[in-house]
Amino acid sequence: MRKFAVIGLGPFGTVVAQSLIERGAEVIAVDLDAKLVDKFKEIADVSVKLDSTDEEALRSQGIDQVDVAIVSIGNFETSILTTALLKQLGIPTVIAVVTRALRIPGSAQIQKRILEFVGANRIIFPEVEIGKKLVQNLLMSSVLDYVPISEKYSAAEVRLPKSFCNKTIGELKIRQKYKVNVLEIKKISGEGKEEKIKKINYLPQPNDVIEEGDVLLVVGEEKDIEKLLKE
């Protein structure tokens, strides 16, 4: 199981930390506000009040040993310093979050470039990603869930058109024709609120059949996923 550090336990950081913990991940929760830290005392592996720009403090809590660090701090200067220090400590993936409260009007791209310059592997603008997700769900009823992975690629849970049913992935040539990869197929029983997952086929092969009601997790460019669902 990968180890995570969530630095900054505001609204976004709290949701991320709680979601990771619920999924069984090992989480170090960090903030300068003792009240926010206390909320995670009983559920996180480590919950600690510390200055994230202090290298020794980070090392003392094992933050230099995590696989992924999510920086969601409400001060841009501190966010920059923390991101740079985490990369200096050798953390493989550092994700910097730029919330509306943190953003300087008209400077989103400048802030993004600064965070990239100091080593952030990914920069998230939560409002932008939530907006994209909402639009996708509104425009395409066959999209059950949608998550932007980068500016170009997205992951989506979808139901394919009925014309695709009872055919194999190989027959449909989904990757060749649409440049979309199928990562899993969920077999579903029941309808509406009674729906239940019977089985999940991870990394399906060309001879696996798509049946009516199946939910597929696909990854690709947004335009290609849209093209696939419009067939």
Notes on the protein architecture:
The protein is an alpha/beta fold and 231 residues long. It has 2 domains: 3-124, 3-Layer(aba) Sandwich (Rossmann fold); 144-229, Regulator of K+ conductance, C-terminal domain (Alpha-Beta Plaits, 2-Layer Sandwich). The protein is built from 9 helices and 13 strands. A 6-stranded parallel beta sheet has the order 3-2-1-4-5-6, with helices on both faces. The longest helix is centred in the middle third of the chain and has 14 residues, at 126-139. 27% of the residues are buried.
Features of this protein?
231 residues, alpha/beta, Rossmann fold, Alpha-Beta Plaits, 5-stranded antiparallel beta sheet, 9 helices, 13 strands, 33% helix, 29% strand, elongated
- Fraction of residues in H or I helices: 25-40%
In CATH terms, what is the fold-level topology of the largest domain?
Rossmann fold
CATH level-two architecture of the largest domain: 3-Layer(aba) Sandwich
Query: Biggest sheet, in brief?
Result: 6 strands, parallel
Distinct helical segment count:
9
Order of helices and strands: EHEHEHEHEHEHEEEHHEEEEH
How many strands? 13
Mean pLDDT: 85
Low-pLDDT segments: none
When the domains are counted, the total is 2
What amount of the residues lies in strands? 25-35%
N-to-C span: 39 Å
CATH hierarchy, class of the largest domain = Alpha Beta
* Main structural class: alpha/beta
Strand order of the largest sheet: 3-2-1-4-5-6
> What radius of gyration results from the CA coordinates?
20 Å
Task: Note the overall shape.
Answer: elongated
